Amino acid sequence: MTFLIGGDLAVDRLGYGAMQLTGPGVWGEPADPDEARRVLRRAIELGVTLIDTADSYGPYVADRLIREALHPYPSNLVIATKVGFTRGGPGMWTVVGRPEYLRQQTELNLRNLGVERIDLLQLHRIDSTVPLADQVGELVALQQEGKVRHIGLSEVSVAQLAQAREITPIATVQNSYNLVHRASEDVLEYAEANGIGFIPYFPLATGDLAGPGSPLSEAAEAHGATPSQLALAWLLRRSPVMLPIPGTSKVAHLEENMAAGRISLTDEEFAAVAA
Ligand SMILES: NC(=O)c1ccc[n+]([C@@H]2O[C@H](COP(=O)([O-])OP(=O)(O)OC[C@H]3O[C@@H](n4cnc5c(N)ncnc54)[C@H](OP(=O)(O)O)[C@@H]3O)[C@@H](O)[C@H]2O)c1
Q1: What is the residue with the minimal CA distance to atom 38 of ligand 1?
Q2: pTM above 0.90, yes or no
Q3: Which residues are the active-site residues?
């Protein structure tokens, strides 16, 4: 259940994604900030050592809640964050990969999270209007200044990942991936072959795989599990480089999801769920 990010940063493979801790449209404050902080504290109690966030969640709301709930941070906690989106309102995401913006947002992540170095800084999206070497190059400059430990990418193709690796080592890739959306299978295979962590975002298909109406309901019941647990157990079984970061704003859902780490699937069960 452990993976070494960048070869030296140990995390439990079942992490937590902080995007659900903001208001609707990943904008503004959550309806229940106390529950948001409880979710974060409970995640640590349950053994989460990888939390995924981004400056753009809120913006700045998720980072601030993480700091309020968890600072000073446990020594084994890895906080992964991202830069490369600017926000104009609820549900609005605009890619900006200009080096000066990536630098500004990295500085703001450092300040808002209250850390001196970011464990894992992911380029949220590649900006097609800016040379990749300039975008990744700025993250490398920040790394050389001691502000970033490892560099990751998000929502990329195999070709883009390979191109970035010609510039610098890439520790992780974060693409959309779950049982009902497996378009990034080739990226996952490339990541596995090269020891790169694969962080599947939307691991529960934004909730469609969880809860009573899930297409996994029957299979989950047969397994003595809940649908979200089966979806996460399947991901964990799919690859040793898989690092799911299910998101939730509720302690009860967090507890349910984290119990997925205790479920193991046989080869037959794994294939049946995939089918
Ligand atoms: N790199 C990127 O571009 C990118 C894009 C999107 C997301 N992400 C990251 O990926 C993480 C995960 O994605 P996500 O949170 O959007 O989607 P997700 O993990 O697939 O699903 C989250 C949704 O499922 C619900 N849910 C969670 N556990 C549940 C349970 N046990 N029973 C019933 N419903 C449950 C949540 O609602 P409740 O709050 O009610 O539990 C929420 O609506 C994010 O938090 C973020 O860190 C990255």
Answers
A1: 248
A2: yes
A3: 57
Q: What is the 3-state secondary structure (H, E, C) of the chain?
A: CEEEECCCEEEECCCEEHHHHCCCCCECCCCCHHHHHHHHHHHHHCCCCEEECCCCCECCHHHHHHHHHHCCCCCCCEEEEEECEECCCCCCCEECCCHHHHHHHHHHHHHHHCCCCEEEEEECCCCCCCCHHHHHHHHHHHHHCCCEEEEEEECCCHHHHHHHHCCCCCCEEEEECECCECCCHHHHHHHHHCCCEEEEECCCHHHCCCCCCCCCHHHHHHCCCCHHHHHHHHHHHHCCCECCCCECCCHHHHHHHHHHHHCCCCHHHHHHHHC
Q: Does the Cβ of 205 fall within 6 Å of ligand 1? A: yes
Q: Write out pLDDT tens, residues 41-98.
A: 999 999 999 999 999 999 999 999 999 999 999 999 999 999 999 999 999 999 999 9
Q: Can you list the domains of the chain with their CATH numbers?
A: 2-205+236-249 (3.20.20.100)
